[in-house]
């Protein structure tokens, strides 16, 4: 009877851990909108209007425009450096000095993206401008074109931002644009991280228990 109860307890532990793990992932998924540009056709150029993210809530929309050339940025299978994967959004060759503007249907408080510049000496900067503040990231030498990661976090949520690499900068490209929806920076007091920690510990405990049972069975033989 005791063995049966222990087996049932282990099954309950495993089921609870799996439920918490996927529940935490759903929370994180709902709080972030990510554009990897895989949904676009190869060669499609700005503007893009009211586009849902590749990953995240479908109700979230973003509009991508460029100036002074309205079709300056194109989607294609261009992996500028090791930070990129699959499609990316890049400034067309020879069409420099453009600003990419992203307008959002829902306010966000953090932007993160991978970028590349058409250079190989780490001498360029990518700039982000928003109503809640500005930032920049230096383009460093990578495996391929120069680039890096730009992250901007604001205390005041914003619903539009622009990117450029200066009036004399070379062409630039972006990928893996991740936007944290405002009001969800630490979901319900950090519950997502807590759930993930508990679930991971429970799964690890179940794994140790299973390995111990297998060793005991082997010893009994």
Based on DSSP secondary structure assignment, what is the total number of beta strands? 10
What is the N-to-C succession of helices and strands?
A: HEEEEEEEEEEH
Averaged pLDDT: 82
Query: What would you call the shape?
Result: globular
Structural domain tally = 1
CATH topology group = Jelly Rolls
What portion of residues is helical?
25-40%
- Beta fraction: 35-45%
Task: Calculate Rg over CA atoms.
Answer: 23 Å
Instruction: Report the total helices.
Output: 2
CATH architecture: Sandwich
Uncertain residue ranges: 12-29, 185-192
List keywords for this structure.
single chain; 221 residues; alpha+beta; Jelly Rolls; ten-stranded antiparallel beta sheet; 10 strands; globular
Describe this structure in words.
By secondary structure, the protein is of the alpha+beta class. It has two helices and ten strands. The chain starts with a helix and ends with a helix.
Short summary of the structure?
The chain has a single domain (30-186), classed as Jelly Rolls, CATH 2.60.120. Helices cover 27% and strands 37% of the residues. It contains two helices and ten strands, in the order H-E-E-E-E-E-E-E-E-E-E-H.
SSE order and pairing:
Blueprint: H1 2-31, E1 32-35, E2 48-51, E3 62-67, E4 73-76, E5 88-91, E6 99-117, E7 125-130, E8 133-138, E9 146-164, E10 172-181, H2 191-220
Antiparallel strand pairs: 1-10, 2-3, 3-6, 4-5, 5-10, 6-9, 6-10, 7-8, 7-9
Helix pairs in contact: 1-2
């Amino acid at each position: 009877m005791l063995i049966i109860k222990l087996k049932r307890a282990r099954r309950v532990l495993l089921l609870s851990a799996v439920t918490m793990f996927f529940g935490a992932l759903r929370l994180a998924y709902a709080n972030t909108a990510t554009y990897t540009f895989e949904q676009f056709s190869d060669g499609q150029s700005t503007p893009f209007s009211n586009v849902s993210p590749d990953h995240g809530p479908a109700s979230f929309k973003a509009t991508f425009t460029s100036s002074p050339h309205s079709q300056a940025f194109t989607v294609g299978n261009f992996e500028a450096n090791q930070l990129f994967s699959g499609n990316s959004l890049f400034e067309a060759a020879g069409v420099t000095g453009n600003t990419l503007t992203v307008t959002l249907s829902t306010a966000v408080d953090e932007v993160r993206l991978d970028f590349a510049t058409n250079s190989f000496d780490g001498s360029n900067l990518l700039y982000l401008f928003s109503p809640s503040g500005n930032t920049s990231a230096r383009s460093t030498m990578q495996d391929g074109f120069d680039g890096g990661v730009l992250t901007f976090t604001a205390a005041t949520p914003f619903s539009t931002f622009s990117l450029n690499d200066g009036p004399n900068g070379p062409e630039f490209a972006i990928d893996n644009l991740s936007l944290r929806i405002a009001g969800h920076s630490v979901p319900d007091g950090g519950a997502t991280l807590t759930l993930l920690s508990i679930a991971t510990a429970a799964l690890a405990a179940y794994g140790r228990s299973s390995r111990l049972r297998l060793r005991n069975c082997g010893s009994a033989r």
